[in-house]
Amino acid sequence: MSAEQFRTLKTYLDSQVIGQPEFTKNILIALLADGHLLVEGPPGLAKTRAVNALAKGIEGDFHRVQFTPDLLPADLTGTDIYRPETGEFVFQKGPLFHNLVLADEINRAPAKVQSALLEAMAEQQITVGNKTYPLSSLFLVMATQNPIEQEGTYPLPEAQLDRFLMHLNVDYTGAETELEILKLTRSEALKNKVPVPAPLTQEQIFKAREEVLSMHLDAGLERYLVELIIATRQGQKYDDRLARWLEFGASPRATISLDKCARAHAWLNGRDYVGPDDIQAVVHNTLRHRILLSYEAEAEGITADQVLDLILELVPVP
Questions:
Q1: Residue 15 belongs to a domain with what CATH number?
Q2: I want to staple 73 with a disulfide (CB 3.0 to 4.6 A). Which of 23, 116, 149, 197 is the partner?
Q3: Which residues, 6+ apart, have CB-to-CB distance to 268 below 8 Å?
Q4: Alpha-carbon torsion 304, 310, 313, 318, what sign?
């Protein structure tokens, strides 16, 4: 499997989501690492458009779910429907049985609905009544949060946040990019569509995932990767500031996620080995939602990204 096909898909995504190259790259990293994305950013930044474009570039179907306070778990998982003509209950599949699912404004739905989604993400299956139904082998959830409006929202607990492979922050672009967006919008209104590349088959995606996992990672770099995680739990070993700022560190699931994302990053860049730059490139997106800051850090205005910057400074590269 050639990474060139994924880079072609990346080029197409960049043509559809102007000025967000890091965002589109991380979508492909999540696809290769078999994980899910939590994306935070103001409305109107093409989050839905990005998943739509990805759905066109791969062999799979896409479904968007608008999360609202009145949403029920069955609205995601599906439910048993009674058929009076046969006197039987028939299971009607819900949106989670699609390959790509956009959970729009996930923090607007209550805890039961969030749990139904996150259980599906973790187990790749859902249970209705006394029956368990497997989900698609290719299953990617991109959940979005709007940081502007906080009224009527149900923030995701830290234990649930840990189920996401990466937490991406998407922000506004510059004036030149806005001009490009205007041109693209006008062009599409005139039916001048950008040609879609030949969709990647699911078999190609699974093959690429195997190649990503089999890439060479030096034992010293593997130790470095683990030390970055340990530094979030035992900050006092490195610096007093870390000890003051960190309440809880990243879980073993974070170690696995960091390893997968670093491998996917290296593979997308055409290498057959993982370097320290690959690990450092994905640290923030992989860990920012997995560390819990102390009240002291919040009082000082310290962010998770600043803590991770300090960890990268303190942990020596082999």
A1: 3.40.50.300
A2: 116
A3: 3, 6, 7, 10, 25, 28, 29, 32
A4: negative
Joined together, the tokens standing for residue 296 give: 């002291």
Give the three-class secondary structure for 181. Answer: helix
pLDDT over threshold 70, residue 1: no
Instruction: Quote the pLDDT of residue 305.
Output: 94
The b/e string for 96-117 (b: 16+ C-beta within 10 A; e otherwise) is: bbbbbbbbbbbbbbeeebbebb
Distances (CA, A) of 218 to 271, 280, 289: 14, 15, 27
Looking at residues 91-114, what average pLDDT do you find?
Answer: 88
pTM of the complete model beyond 0.70: yes
| Those residues with Cβ within 8 angstroms of residue 113's Cβ, 6 or more apart along the chain or in another chain | 67, 71, 72, 73, 75, 76
H helix or E strand, kind and range, residue 113: helix 111-123
Q: Same domain, yes or no, for 177 and 221?
A: no
Query: Is residue 47 scored above 90 in pLDDT?
Result: no
Structural domains counted in the chain: 2
Q: Which domain holds residue 231?
A: 215-313
Strands 78-83 and 88-93: antiparallel
Write down the pLDDT at residue 152. Answer: 53
